[in-house]
Amino acid sequence: MKNEMTHRERILAAVLHQPTDRVPTDYWGVPEITDKLMRSLGVTDMTGLAQALDIDMIMHAEPALKRDCGRSNMFDIQMRQIPVHNGVGYYEEPVAHPIAKFETIDEIEAGYVWPTTDLYDYSGIKSQCEKLRREGFAIQGGYISLTYFYEMVRGTEQMLLDFALDEALSDYILFKLNEFASAHTRRILEEADGYIDLSQVTDDFGSQNSLMISETMIERYLGSYYEANVALVKSFDARVFHHDDGAISDVIPWIIDKGCEILNPIQWHLPGWNLDELKRRYGSQLCFHGGIDNQDILPFRGKEAVEEEVRTCIDKLYSDRTGYILAPCHNIQAITPLENVFTMYQYAKEYSSRT
Length: 355
Prior knowledge:
- The protein is an alpha/beta fold and 355 residues long.
- It has two domains: 176 residues, no CATH class; 136 residues, no CATH class.
- Helix content is 45%, strand content 13%.
- It is built from 14 helices and eleven strands.
- Helix 6 crosses helix 8, helix 8 packs parallel to helix 9 and helix 13 runs parallel beside helix 14.
- It is globular, with a radius of gyration of 20 Å.
- The two termini are 12 Å apart.
- The relative contact order is 0.14.
Protein backbone atom coordinates (compact mmCIF):
# COMPACT_ATOMS: atom_id res chain seq x y z
CA MET A 1 0.00 0.00 0.00
CA LYS A 2 1.26 3.46 -0.85
CA ASN A 3 1.96 6.20 1.71
CA GLU A 4 -0.91 8.33 3.02
CA MET A 5 -2.93 9.74 0.16
CA THR A 6 -4.34 13.23 -0.26
CA HIS A 7 -8.10 13.72 -0.11
CA ARG A 8 -8.35 14.03 -3.88
CA GLU A 9 -6.11 11.04 -4.52
CA ARG A 10 -8.24 8.89 -2.22
CA ILE A 11 -11.51 9.88 -3.92
CA LEU A 12 -10.21 9.44 -7.46
CA ALA A 13 -8.54 6.13 -6.65
CA ALA A 14 -11.88 4.81 -5.36
CA VAL A 15 -13.64 5.93 -8.54
CA LEU A 16 -10.94 4.29 -10.66
CA HIS A 17 -11.10 1.05 -8.62
CA GLN A 18 -7.57 1.43 -7.31
CA PRO A 19 -6.63 0.49 -3.73
CA THR A 20 -6.66 3.25 -1.12
CA ASP A 21 -4.78 3.58 2.16
CA ARG A 22 -8.08 3.82 4.05
CA VAL A 23 -11.71 4.09 3.07
CA PRO A 24 -12.48 7.46 1.40
CA THR A 25 -15.13 9.54 3.16
CA ASP A 26 -17.58 12.21 2.03
CA TYR A 27 -20.09 14.49 3.76
CA TRP A 28 -23.71 15.40 3.02
CA GLY A 29 -25.73 17.35 5.60
CA VAL A 30 -28.60 19.79 6.00
CA PRO A 31 -27.53 23.37 6.84
CA GLU A 32 -28.48 23.04 10.50
CA ILE A 33 -26.23 20.03 11.18
CA THR A 34 -23.42 21.62 9.16
CA ASP A 35 -23.68 24.78 11.29
CA LYS A 36 -23.65 22.72 14.50
CA LEU A 37 -20.57 20.83 13.38
CA MET A 38 -18.76 24.02 12.38
CA ARG A 39 -19.52 25.67 15.72
CA SER A 40 -18.45 22.58 17.62
CA LEU A 41 -15.17 22.31 15.70
CA GLY A 42 -14.47 26.04 15.50
CA VAL A 43 -14.38 26.30 11.70
CA THR A 44 -16.18 28.59 9.27
CA ASP A 45 -16.27 26.89 5.87
CA MET A 46 -16.55 23.48 4.21
CA THR A 47 -12.84 22.99 3.66
CA GLY A 48 -12.26 23.77 7.32
CA LEU A 49 -14.95 21.26 8.26
CA ALA A 50 -13.36 18.57 6.09
CA GLN A 51 -9.96 19.21 7.62
CA ALA A 52 -11.32 19.22 11.17
CA LEU A 53 -13.16 15.92 10.61
CA ASP A 54 -10.19 14.54 8.62
CA ILE A 55 -12.46 13.44 5.77
CA ASP A 56 -12.06 13.57 2.00
CA MET A 57 -15.21 15.62 1.31
CA ILE A 58 -15.92 16.17 -2.38
CA MET A 59 -16.14 19.94 -2.85
CA HIS A 60 -18.42 21.82 -5.25
CA ALA A 61 -17.72 24.57 -7.76
CA GLU A 62 -20.82 26.54 -8.69
CA PRO A 63 -21.75 29.64 -10.69
CA ALA A 64 -23.59 32.53 -9.10
CA LEU A 65 -27.16 33.45 -10.00
CA LYS A 66 -27.01 37.02 -11.26
CA ARG A 67 -28.57 39.47 -8.82
CA ASP A 68 -30.30 41.38 -11.59
CA CYS A 69 -31.73 38.32 -13.37
CA GLY A 70 -35.18 38.79 -11.82
CA ARG A 71 -35.29 35.32 -10.27
CA SER A 72 -34.50 33.90 -6.85
CA ASN A 73 -33.81 30.46 -8.33
CA MET A 74 -33.32 28.97 -11.78
CA PHE A 75 -36.94 27.96 -12.35
CA ASP A 76 -38.51 31.07 -10.77
CA ILE A 77 -40.27 28.99 -8.12
CA GLN A 78 -41.64 30.69 -5.05
CA MET A 79 -40.39 28.72 -2.04
CA ARG A 80 -41.40 28.66 1.59
CA GLN A 81 -39.74 27.33 4.72
CA ILE A 82 -41.50 24.33 6.26
CA PRO A 83 -40.42 23.91 9.91
CA VAL A 84 -39.36 20.49 11.13
CA HIS A 85 -41.87 19.40 13.76
CA ASN A 86 -39.45 19.62 16.71
CA GLY A 87 -38.17 23.05 15.74
CA VAL A 88 -34.58 22.10 14.94
CA GLY A 89 -34.69 23.28 11.34
CA TYR A 90 -36.76 23.58 8.19
CA TYR A 91 -37.04 22.45 4.61
CA GLU A 92 -37.64 24.75 1.67
CA GLU A 93 -40.57 23.56 -0.44
CA PRO A 94 -42.34 25.07 -3.48
CA VAL A 95 -45.44 27.12 -2.71
CA ALA A 96 -46.65 26.25 -6.22
CA HIS A 97 -45.13 24.60 -9.27
CA PRO A 98 -44.90 27.25 -12.01
CA ILE A 99 -46.27 25.20 -14.92
CA ALA A 100 -48.56 22.85 -12.99
CA LYS A 101 -51.70 24.74 -14.02
CA PHE A 102 -51.02 24.50 -17.76
CA GLU A 103 -52.55 21.71 -19.82
CA THR A 104 -50.96 22.25 -23.23
CA ILE A 105 -47.63 23.13 -24.76
CA ASP A 106 -49.09 26.35 -26.13
CA GLU A 107 -50.19 27.42 -22.67
CA ILE A 108 -46.72 26.83 -21.27
CA GLU A 109 -45.09 28.71 -24.16
CA ALA A 110 -47.39 31.67 -23.56
CA GLY A 111 -47.20 31.68 -19.76
CA TYR A 112 -43.71 30.62 -18.70
CA VAL A 113 -40.15 31.70 -19.45
CA TRP A 114 -37.72 28.78 -19.40
CA PRO A 115 -34.32 29.37 -17.75
CA THR A 116 -31.18 29.96 -19.82
CA THR A 117 -27.51 30.22 -18.99
CA ASP A 118 -27.86 34.02 -19.16
CA LEU A 119 -29.17 33.82 -15.58
CA TYR A 120 -25.73 32.88 -14.26
CA ASP A 121 -22.27 34.34 -13.84
CA TYR A 122 -19.75 31.57 -14.54
CA SER A 123 -16.65 33.74 -14.26
CA GLY A 124 -15.71 32.59 -10.76
CA ILE A 125 -15.69 28.86 -11.49
CA LYS A 126 -12.01 28.49 -12.32
CA SER A 127 -10.79 30.45 -9.31
CA GLN A 128 -13.00 28.31 -7.03
CA CYS A 129 -11.48 25.19 -8.57
CA GLU A 130 -7.91 26.43 -8.30
CA LYS A 131 -8.37 27.12 -4.59
CA LEU A 132 -9.96 23.72 -3.92
CA ARG A 133 -7.24 21.93 -5.90
CA ARG A 134 -4.52 23.72 -3.92
CA GLU A 135 -6.23 22.55 -0.75
CA GLY A 136 -6.15 18.98 -2.03
CA PHE A 137 -9.81 18.19 -2.64
CA ALA A 138 -11.68 16.47 -5.45
CA ILE A 139 -14.14 18.82 -7.18
CA GLN A 140 -17.66 18.26 -8.43
CA GLY A 141 -19.37 20.62 -10.86
CA GLY A 142 -22.53 20.41 -12.93
CA TYR A 143 -25.88 18.86 -12.07
CA ILE A 144 -28.39 17.36 -14.51
CA SER A 145 -31.48 15.74 -12.93
CA LEU A 146 -34.38 15.90 -15.34
CA THR A 147 -37.02 14.20 -13.21
CA TYR A 148 -36.12 16.36 -10.21
CA PHE A 149 -36.37 19.48 -12.34
CA TYR A 150 -39.66 18.22 -13.79
CA GLU A 151 -41.04 17.70 -10.27
CA MET A 152 -40.01 21.22 -9.32
CA VAL A 153 -41.76 22.93 -12.22
CA ARG A 154 -44.76 20.59 -12.50
CA GLY A 155 -45.07 18.54 -9.28
CA THR A 156 -44.35 14.86 -8.66
CA GLU A 157 -47.89 13.58 -9.13
CA GLN A 158 -48.39 15.59 -12.31
CA MET A 159 -45.08 14.36 -13.70
CA LEU A 160 -46.18 10.75 -13.26
CA LEU A 161 -49.55 11.51 -14.84
CA ASP A 162 -47.87 13.27 -17.75
CA PHE A 163 -45.57 10.32 -18.38
CA ALA A 164 -48.52 7.93 -18.42
CA LEU A 165 -51.08 10.03 -20.27
CA ASP A 166 -49.43 12.73 -22.39
CA GLU A 167 -46.23 11.73 -24.16
CA ALA A 168 -46.08 14.85 -26.32
CA LEU A 169 -46.29 17.20 -23.34
CA SER A 170 -43.77 15.11 -21.38
CA ASP A 171 -41.34 15.12 -24.28
CA TYR A 172 -41.65 18.89 -24.66
CA ILE A 173 -41.04 19.59 -20.95
CA LEU A 174 -38.07 17.21 -20.77
CA PHE A 175 -36.58 18.76 -23.92
CA LYS A 176 -36.81 22.27 -22.46
CA LEU A 177 -35.39 21.16 -19.11
CA ASN A 178 -32.49 19.35 -20.74
CA GLU A 179 -31.84 22.23 -23.11
CA PHE A 180 -31.03 24.40 -20.12
CA ALA A 181 -29.46 21.78 -17.83
CA SER A 182 -27.01 20.41 -20.36
CA ALA A 183 -25.96 23.91 -21.47
CA HIS A 184 -25.55 24.95 -17.82
CA THR A 185 -23.33 21.97 -17.06
CA ARG A 186 -21.33 22.53 -20.25
CA ARG A 187 -20.62 26.13 -19.22
CA ILE A 188 -19.43 24.99 -15.79
CA LEU A 189 -17.14 22.36 -17.29
CA GLU A 190 -15.79 24.80 -19.86
CA GLU A 191 -15.10 27.53 -17.32
CA ALA A 192 -13.45 25.04 -14.94
CA ASP A 193 -10.79 24.41 -17.60
CA GLY A 194 -10.12 20.79 -16.66
CA TYR A 195 -10.38 21.08 -12.87
CA ILE A 196 -13.73 19.30 -12.47
CA ASP A 197 -13.30 15.68 -11.37
CA LEU A 198 -16.95 14.62 -11.04
CA SER A 199 -20.26 15.79 -12.49
CA GLN A 200 -23.79 14.64 -11.71
CA VAL A 201 -26.11 13.03 -14.26
CA THR A 202 -28.72 11.91 -11.85
CA ASP A 203 -32.38 11.32 -10.96
CA ASP A 204 -34.65 9.94 -8.24
CA PHE A 205 -36.29 6.86 -9.74
CA GLY A 206 -37.07 5.15 -6.44
CA SER A 207 -39.51 5.28 -3.57
CA GLN A 208 -39.02 3.65 -0.18
CA ASN A 209 -40.35 0.37 -1.58
CA SER A 210 -39.78 0.18 -5.34
CA LEU A 211 -39.22 2.15 -8.53
CA MET A 212 -41.64 5.04 -9.02
CA ILE A 213 -41.68 4.44 -12.77
CA SER A 214 -40.84 1.34 -14.76
CA GLU A 215 -37.50 0.80 -16.47
CA THR A 216 -39.37 0.79 -19.79
CA MET A 217 -40.71 4.27 -19.06
CA ILE A 218 -37.32 5.46 -17.79
CA GLU A 219 -35.74 4.39 -21.06
CA ARG A 220 -38.59 5.87 -23.11
CA TYR A 221 -38.31 9.34 -21.62
CA LEU A 222 -34.73 9.59 -20.37
CA GLY A 223 -32.54 7.07 -22.19
CA SER A 224 -31.32 9.31 -24.99
CA TYR A 225 -30.75 12.22 -22.60
CA TYR A 226 -28.57 10.05 -20.38
CA GLU A 227 -26.47 8.94 -23.31
CA ALA A 228 -25.90 12.53 -24.45
CA ASN A 229 -25.28 13.97 -20.99
CA VAL A 230 -22.95 11.19 -19.88
CA ALA A 231 -20.99 11.72 -23.10
CA LEU A 232 -20.88 15.46 -22.37
CA VAL A 233 -19.36 14.92 -18.92
CA LYS A 234 -16.83 12.38 -20.19
CA SER A 235 -15.79 14.68 -23.04
CA PHE A 236 -14.33 16.96 -20.34
CA ASP A 237 -12.52 14.01 -18.73
CA ALA A 238 -14.78 14.12 -15.66
CA ARG A 239 -16.40 11.10 -13.99
CA VAL A 240 -20.16 10.61 -13.92
CA PHE A 241 -21.76 10.67 -10.46
CA HIS A 242 -25.31 9.25 -10.33
CA HIS A 243 -27.50 9.98 -7.29
CA ASP A 244 -30.65 7.86 -7.07
CA ASP A 245 -32.62 7.55 -3.82
CA GLY A 246 -34.69 4.63 -2.70
CA ALA A 247 -35.26 1.03 -3.72
CA ILE A 248 -33.66 1.27 -7.16
CA SER A 249 -31.62 -1.93 -7.32
CA ASP A 250 -33.64 -3.25 -10.30
CA VAL A 251 -32.43 -0.40 -12.51
CA ILE A 252 -28.72 -0.62 -11.68
CA PRO A 253 -27.87 -2.47 -14.93
CA TRP A 254 -29.57 0.35 -16.88
CA ILE A 255 -27.55 2.93 -14.93
CA ILE A 256 -24.33 1.11 -15.78
CA ASP A 257 -25.33 0.69 -19.43
CA LYS A 258 -25.77 4.45 -19.74
CA GLY A 259 -22.21 5.01 -18.58
CA CYS A 260 -22.61 6.18 -14.98
CA GLU A 261 -19.55 5.48 -12.83
CA ILE A 262 -20.40 6.38 -9.22
CA LEU A 263 -23.68 5.24 -7.60
CA ASN A 264 -25.11 7.07 -4.60
CA PRO A 265 -26.66 6.80 -1.98
CA ILE A 266 -26.98 2.98 -1.53
CA GLN A 267 -30.01 2.90 0.80
CA TRP A 268 -29.40 -0.76 1.47
CA HIS A 269 -31.91 -1.12 4.31
CA LEU A 270 -34.73 -0.69 1.76
CA PRO A 271 -36.26 -3.60 -0.23
CA GLY A 272 -34.23 -5.18 -3.02
CA TRP A 273 -30.73 -4.36 -1.79
CA ASN A 274 -28.08 -6.95 -0.92
CA LEU A 275 -24.60 -5.54 -0.32
CA ASP A 276 -22.76 -8.80 -1.02
CA GLU A 277 -24.59 -9.20 -4.32
CA LEU A 278 -24.11 -5.52 -5.14
CA LYS A 279 -20.34 -5.76 -4.77
CA ARG A 280 -20.12 -9.11 -6.55
CA ARG A 281 -22.23 -8.14 -9.56
CA TYR A 282 -21.38 -4.48 -10.02
CA GLY A 283 -18.23 -3.76 -8.02
CA SER A 284 -15.99 -3.73 -11.07
CA GLN A 285 -18.26 -1.29 -12.93
CA LEU A 286 -19.43 1.11 -10.23
CA CYS A 287 -17.85 3.00 -7.38
CA PHE A 288 -20.35 2.96 -4.50
CA HIS A 289 -20.92 6.15 -2.52
CA GLY A 290 -22.92 6.44 0.71
CA GLY A 291 -24.32 3.44 2.56
CA ILE A 292 -24.53 4.79 6.12
CA ASP A 293 -28.21 4.93 7.06
CA ASN A 294 -29.42 8.42 7.97
CA GLN A 295 -33.11 7.55 8.48
CA ASP A 296 -32.62 5.46 11.61
CA ILE A 297 -29.02 4.64 12.53
CA LEU A 298 -27.44 8.11 12.53
CA PRO A 299 -30.29 10.13 14.06
CA PHE A 300 -31.76 7.60 16.52
CA ARG A 301 -29.20 4.95 17.47
CA GLY A 302 -26.10 5.05 19.61
CA LYS A 303 -22.37 4.70 19.07
CA GLU A 304 -22.34 0.90 18.84
CA ALA A 305 -25.01 0.86 16.13
CA VAL A 306 -23.12 3.49 14.13
CA GLU A 307 -19.91 1.48 14.40
CA GLU A 308 -21.73 -1.68 13.30
CA GLU A 309 -23.17 0.15 10.27
CA VAL A 310 -19.71 1.42 9.33
CA ARG A 311 -18.18 -2.05 9.73
CA THR A 312 -20.87 -3.64 7.57
CA CYS A 313 -20.44 -1.17 4.72
CA ILE A 314 -16.65 -1.40 4.81
CA ASP A 315 -16.62 -5.21 5.04
CA LYS A 316 -19.02 -5.61 2.13
CA LEU A 317 -18.39 -2.64 -0.18
CA TYR A 318 -14.67 -2.09 0.53
CA SER A 319 -13.71 -5.77 0.75
CA ASP A 320 -11.00 -5.37 -1.92
CA ARG A 321 -10.04 -1.87 -0.69
CA THR A 322 -11.36 -0.31 -3.89
CA GLY A 323 -14.55 1.21 -5.27
CA TYR A 324 -16.24 2.61 -2.16
CA ILE A 325 -16.61 6.11 -0.69
CA LEU A 326 -18.21 6.00 2.75
CA ALA A 327 -20.82 8.68 3.40
CA PRO A 328 -24.32 9.09 4.81
CA CYS A 329 -27.13 7.79 2.59
CA HIS A 330 -28.28 11.37 2.10
CA ASN A 331 -28.08 14.62 4.05
CA ILE A 332 -27.41 14.08 7.74
CA GLN A 333 -30.49 15.44 9.47
CA ALA A 334 -30.61 18.27 12.00
CA ILE A 335 -31.71 15.98 14.84
CA THR A 336 -28.62 13.76 14.49
CA PRO A 337 -26.35 13.77 17.57
CA LEU A 338 -22.95 15.21 16.75
CA GLU A 339 -21.34 12.28 18.54
CA ASN A 340 -22.79 9.92 15.93
CA VAL A 341 -21.29 12.00 13.12
CA PHE A 342 -17.89 12.01 14.80
CA THR A 343 -18.15 8.27 15.43
CA MET A 344 -19.01 7.52 11.79
CA TYR A 345 -15.90 9.22 10.45
CA GLN A 346 -13.45 8.40 13.24
CA TYR A 347 -14.38 4.72 13.29
CA ALA A 348 -14.33 4.48 9.47
CA LYS A 349 -10.74 5.77 9.47
CA GLU A 350 -9.68 3.53 12.34
CA TYR A 351 -11.38 0.35 11.14
CA SER A 352 -10.42 0.64 7.47
CA SER A 353 -6.82 1.44 8.34
CA ARG A 354 -6.38 -1.84 10.19
CA THR A 355 -8.43 -4.23 8.03
